[in-house]
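Dissemination and training. As part of the outreach component of the grant, students in the summer workshop were shown how a complex can be specified as a set of sequence lines and then modelled as a single object. The example used during the hands-on session is reproduced here so that future cohorts can follow it. Participants entered these lines:
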Amino acid sequence: MLVFIARRLFVSLWVFLAATAVMFILAANANDPLEEARQLPDNEREAALATITERMNLDKPVLIRYLLWLGSAITGDLGVNRQGQDVNAMLGTAFPATLQLLAAATVLAIVFGIAIGVISALRQYSAFDQSVTFVAFVCFSLPLFWVGTLLKQYIAVDINDWLRDPTLSLVMVVALSLLAGAVCSGVLVVDRRTRWTVFGVTAGAMAVLLLVLSATGWFADPGLGPVVVALTAFAGAVAITTLVSGLDFTSAPMRAALVSAGVGVVCYFAFGPVLNDPNLLTLLLLALLTAAVCAGIGWFFGGELFRRQAIPAAVLTGLFTAAVIFVDRVLQAFAGYAAHSRIRGRVISTIGPSTPNFEGTFWQHSLDSAGHLLLPTLALVLVSLASYTRYTRASMLEVMNQDYVRTARAKGLTERAVITRHALRNGMIPITTLTAYDIGTLIGGAVITERVFGWKAMGTLLQDGIEQGDPMPIMAFFLVAGGAIVIFNMVADIAYAFLDPRIRLS
Amino acid sequence: MTINPPLDTSGTLNTASAARDAVGEAAEEVHTAYSLADAKPPLDEEILKVENLTVEFPTDDGAVQAVRGVSYTLHAREVLGIVGESGSGKSVSSMAVMGLLPKSARIRGSVLYRGEDLLRMRPGQQRALRGEKIAMIFQDPMTSLNPVHTVGDQLAEAVLAHHLVPRREALARAKEMLDLVGIPQPDKRLRAYPHEFSGGMRQRVMIAMAIINNPDVIIADEPTTALDVTVQAQILEKLLEVKDAVNAAILMITHDLGVIAGMAHKTLVMYAGKPVEIGHTDQVFYEPRMPYTAGLLGSIPSLEGDAQGRLRPITGTPPSLISLPSGCPFQPRCPLATDVCRQTEPPLGDIGDGHWAACHHSEKLAEVEDPTAFFHPDAQTAPSEGTGTDSEEGR
Amino acid sequence: MRKKSAQPAGTPPTPGSADDAAQGMNVASRTQFQLVRARFFRHRGALVGMALFGFILTLAATSIGWGPIPGWWDKSPTATGVVLEGGRPTLGVWPTFLGGGGVSWGEHPFGQDDIGRDYFAVVMRGTQVSLTVAFLVGTVATVIGTVIGACAGYFRGWAEAVLMRVTDVMITIPTLVIAAVVAAMAGRQGIVVLGIMLGLVTWTQTARLVRGEVLSLREKEFVEAARSVGTSAKRIIFRHLVPNVVGIIIVSVTLAIAAAVLLETGLSFLGIGVQPPDTSLGRLITDYQTAMMTRAWLFYWPGLFIIGIALSVNFIGDGLRDAFDPRQNRVRD
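and obtained this result:
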């Protein structure tokens, strides 16, 4: 395995090196860097031309310029752009914003894309499957910036306007309830009669919930409160255990998960003061602690027979409960955030990655990032989600037709075990390759999205570089983007080998 | 996972070790022949009774009638062979018994396991029997094992699906079974992945998986078709051995009459979704009363050499299951076909001694010495009122 | 269940030899092409896609005229004029009996832009350009991808290594990035050069697909057979392998075209690609995105045409994929 990784790393390095050369030569020829200077008045022209030629080494052949760039890039110096600004500094400010956007979009697209794809495959030819297929095709066909502009102009404006007086009209309540009912019944049930029952119950519950929330002014000052947090945590425990080991209230994994949820709710009160204004490190440590404690709970309650199911059930429940508490805290900070003098109720932002000069608690900063990230991420995810959904669906359908799935059924495994233990594991193997391929698409998408939403980030480096015929910022962009692709490809290969013993052991 | 009362492990282990003693020597030497004559005789107890089973698949071109009324009874410790060409419905009928057909299949009739109808059980009950009381071995061992899990995990899983025992014990049981089916170094092989096994070894793993819960019935669907000839015999012998080790009955599905000959107490011949002949294996082999059976027998090459030294294959192809020919489905390929064959489909008629055949002319086959001679290229000389060219129509 | 049983060598020709015949028992009378066609025409999405794409293509080709094709629309995409009624579209789609204003074209069905050009004619011109670029990109990318993929899949040793490394290098550069750089070079030389240049850098996906398919085909018996009688590599690739991957290639062309339409709009948005005075659908959206709140139709019409083209081509591609490779959607039987 180690040899495999080392060999893979070696090959990747050479490929990446070759790619930088290709990129540099193309970038150096994209535009004429001297064009603007040539149009200067006569008295300034010569000096400007000379400065630029000297700064960009335009008197040397492209290959030499590449080698010069490579030499300094290896030492970590990315050079200066046409105007003489330090590219390292530009990259330093651009990178974090783009990373935020890409990370959020990638994670969401993978999680939701795979989940929807799996459900879609398991409910092949159902109404849910058909609608997902259709929506995926529409998403495939959307020009990213067209969607981005639409989101910016309508969703942002509408939500912000609505937040001034956040009550739901009856039409909205009915529409949202019907949608919730349709999604729930489509995902959960196969049998026709129960489907209508589920539809009715979900839609009804949703309607009541929305009406109550709307009437109590919850949307203006949201928050979950201890009761809702507890209920959600326990419901999550039941749902997670059902997925991990089946729905049985007397089983050991279920007991472990419920206890984890209980401990989480107790911590909600116990850790109250710590959570008033924490930093990211505290939260990560708390998450680790949660996982460790829950693993212990699972180990204890699982006993010898059920440890393998109880530990994941307990850990997942613990993390889920922590997430619910996190959401509760963020929501509680909402009223204060919206009233902040720099925000003035315009919660969904359409410009830049964060509000400049914003001061507030950790929770308010989280909200600020969320408000800025929401629409760009949504636009990126919409476009990327579709390929994950389609690919996962196809892969799962293929796997579900395999002989070994039939063998698993013939053993008398429950359908849940057949799917989670045999189909999913195999169905995910080709998806690893897709993630590597998709990251390139996402980076391209990020360039466009950043421009739509006026972010000064990585995309700006690329665009300015191309416009000015200046390879330096382009290469800085490419070092990060190409590096990300190389790393994703490697991780995908390693994940592939990890998931598939035929590769791992050969 | 249904929680059954804990498995009586001591009991299981005893049965298995007793079984191992019974076949002790055989397990040591791979090539010790273990034939049907050595096997424990069948009992009178009816384990599986299939009655008038029909299966249809709706397709764009119309309903495919894959199985059109199959009935048979399997007794404890009995081996029943089901023979037929591809598309004769032999596999589909056994998948119906296992409850493994896709949801789109329309299944009618009944499948009684110890008097209880599997087709009318709730899915949960049916699942509890699957792999526990009725187990199955599939045709292609190369694809029937999950490539990403170890063999030990896949075997243990079969135990854990039905019994509330620690994983450790399930793995111990798995090891025992690998030993029983003749896999060397079972300890080490438990941790190996399927791709590290040869085809024959994988099929042994499949057999181990089938018997791991001491089932009453093992359905073997062409278990040797995908294997080398030399390995085929070993696998068949091993099947007979383990059948006695766990006291199971076997439903042996194959297109290869050679497999059935030394394996099965009774033989059922299927054609176009229906049984056309059923009887003791000797009866079917030596006194076939249905031209199709005779045709199958005629296409087996024999070492002793046939009078003419040539095979006598059946001409033509099996009929489309969407639009069957009128009358007897075999009539377009049958050298004995007459007008009555083209008009009415013959029922399965009792010939005596538990031998049944579905043919209007079964007495004609009884009269001749070598029924396979009808399929001889010079069949015109054989006693037949049908025109020999009928057999060409299937082309 | 009626799976093809692999006959081990040396097995007597028992009734199992009828297996192959049995496989074809319901389809004996149909050729491969007829089967593909039948499956394609059963795919509802593909049919709708075909109809929509045909409609858009016909509209774009005949309305304002395209090369030798005369146009029936009397306005030109370049002629400016007086802006009537704020340039609002006059297209009516609500029939009167539904309380609408009746179905009619009117003077300017898609409205007018700020200098009074007939927006229908402008959008048609944009559609023509976008389609041309997309077809060029799709064709060039597929030809290169197929050749590279087929060679990389067929040859072993250094040829495969070199071709695969070249593909790896190309994959390392995000499509949009390399396309943007190349388009910046080619944009000023017209749409044909632009299309070809973009095709030169977007073939990697096709190459990967074709290589994967050829890799598995290479091990098939008929290739062994051809090789054993001394057939040349060129002949094997183009006579035996390529016809067998033709399904994948056709599917890949359609998907490449759909992707190219979107790529072109993306580049236009970044100000790279098709340059004025010529226009494309992407260019139009970019030009009028600020007009969105005031004259939204200038933003919507080109967007709808892009979605219409991409969606219909994607659906056609999906139909073709199912038709050539029904495995993906088959239920076990």
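The mean pLDDT of chain A is 85. Students were then asked to discuss how this feature might be tested experimentally.
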